[in-house]
Amino acid sequence: MRRRRGAARAPLVAGAAAVLLLAGCVAGAEGVAESPVGEFPGGERPDYQLGGPYPPAEDVGIVVRDHREAPEQGRYNVCYLNAFQVDDDGEGHWADALLLLADGAPVIDPDWNEPLLDTSDAGTREKIADVVGAWIDGCAEAGFDAVEFDNLDSYLRSGGALTAEDNLALAGDLVARAHGRGLAAGQKNSAELTKRARSLGFDFAVTEECQHYDECGAFTDAYGASVIEIEYADQPQANLAEACSERGDTISIVRRDRELLPAGAEGHVAQWC
Fold first, then answer.
1. Phi-psi label, residue 181: left if phi above 0, alpha if psi -120 to 50, beta otherwise
2. Is the pTM of this model over 0.70?
């Protein structure tokens, strides 16, 4: 939900980055770090509930909710975290020194009016990781099974002040923190970074509109069946039909309303294969 389309999108990166091994992990096949957490239930029906929690349909196996909400008993629960930008009710967690500045003013994501966090310096990344790490701890204590880190692609909106390497360095620290708390870690969007993110130890991916933008292969090539695909109802219905035909028996797919409204609200849409 956080990363609506409309911002500049980079082409897929062809070159492979150096493999980074996380603490407590060992190198697996093709440079992918073996995860210390349980297997992601790829193929289960997902419900993406960032607009507000509600009881999921009986046959839904994966529920994604904001970290301020409680997990759903008896399902695989993913905890959403805005890890690279400041959301509209998160300013109190962030010191001004952790925001990315240009000419003394915060650099803003124009789609969401969110200030970007400054991942360009190792010391600043450590402080950001302390804040997000506390949220990760809270997700574990609440009973979530996994975390999803949004806005990995914030560097694309930084005017060149941040790089993919800056954000991946922070991502590696967050993945390690999640694994240390027994949580699987999910990459959010950023098709151009899938191979490099996977090598950091990410366990699964959450992708918005990959059918619409013809980039689903980047995620399934890196993560296999461990992918949640969300298509949106303000795009053609055919996107869901095509996604289900191509991947519906392998990965987790849902079509939602753009605002991710709770069930019963006017405009709520939740459709599956």
1. alpha
2. yes
